[in-house]
Amino acid sequence: MDSISGKVALVTGANRGIGRAIAQALAQVGANVAINYRNGEHEANSLCEQIEQFGGRSIAVQADVSNSADVDRLVETIEQSLGTVAILVNNAGIARPQPLEAIGVADWDELINVNLKSAFLVTQAVLPPMRQQQWGRIINLSSVAAQVGGVIGPHYAASKAGLLGLTHAYASILAKEGITVNAIAPALIATDMISDNPRIRPDLIPVGRFGEVEEVADVAVMLARNAYITGQTINVNGGWYMS
Asked: Is the pTM of this model over 0.85?
């Protein structure tokens, strides 16, 4: 396993939920962590304070990662404050549970932009120094919805399936450059996204409970340290989808 102590990690959408847990876990093993958020300044700043208590360095940067100008500003700010990004976790995402007949073009565009386009924009922005240094870790947060359709809607499922294609493409291109690219596909993790949807019940999961954010964060840390796993989707889903 590679040491990631002292390396700079960027976690998008990190002020709450899975992103927050991943940022904390990376900091606990020595990474300096940039916390990206679109809304939730207080939560992002409190996370920075926690990371500094672990002895690491941290910065919170507001940016809409589906906007290319915001992404450029985000990466520039991180490089000036912490250094070049070596570990990227594309976690920013939204869910809009809707009946099929209620999904319009604006709904489709919003989920594709926030969940998929953002991962492309941020990856492209941080790749040049990774390729120069011949070391990098890119982790994309997909979903079981990419594999089974899920319970939110086709716009969400398509955005998360797109992340798997993005993962495979980058992984195949970058494999010989010391850069690994993998996806994590969680299912029914105990976050606000789950608690806000009354259609989602723990009995949908074979193990009979919702997952914990820390169980996803453990996998992210493993992928950040491992140099031989690339192009893979790690399923953290309680047995909903088995492969």
From this structure: yes
Are the C-beta atoms of 220 and 184 separated by less than 8 Å? yes
Calpha distance 223→233 (Å, rounded): 11
- Residues 69, 204: Cα–Cα separation, whole Å: 40
Radius of gyration of the chain (CA): 17
Express each pLDDT in 75-106 by its tens digit. Answer: 999 999 999 999 999 999 999 888 999 999 99
Q: Are 124 and 14 in contact (CB under 8 A)?
A: no
**CATH code (residue 70):** 3.40.50.720
Q: Which of 37, 156, 170, 228 is flagged as catalytic?
A: 156
Our count of domains for the chain comes to: 1
**How far is Cα 118 from Cα 10, in angstroms, rounded to an integer?**
13
Integer Cα distance of 232 and 243 in angstroms: 12
3 lies in a domain? no
Domain-embedded: residue 242? no
- Phi, psi dihedrals of residue 27, rounded to the nearest 5°: -65, -35
Contacts of 173 by beta carbon, 8 Å cutoff, 6+ apart:
none
Order of all β-strands in the sheet with 136-141: 58-62, 32-37, 8-11, 85-90, 136-141, 179-186, 233-236
**Which residues make beta-bridge pairs with 22?**
none
Which element (helix H / strand E) includes 136?
Answer: strand 136-141
Q: Is 241 an annotated catalytic residue?
A: no
Question: Which 3 state secondary structure label does DSSP give 83?
Answer: coil
Q: Which domain holds residue 208?
A: 8-236
Q: Check residue 47 and report its DSSP letter.
A: H
Residue 243 lies in a domain: no
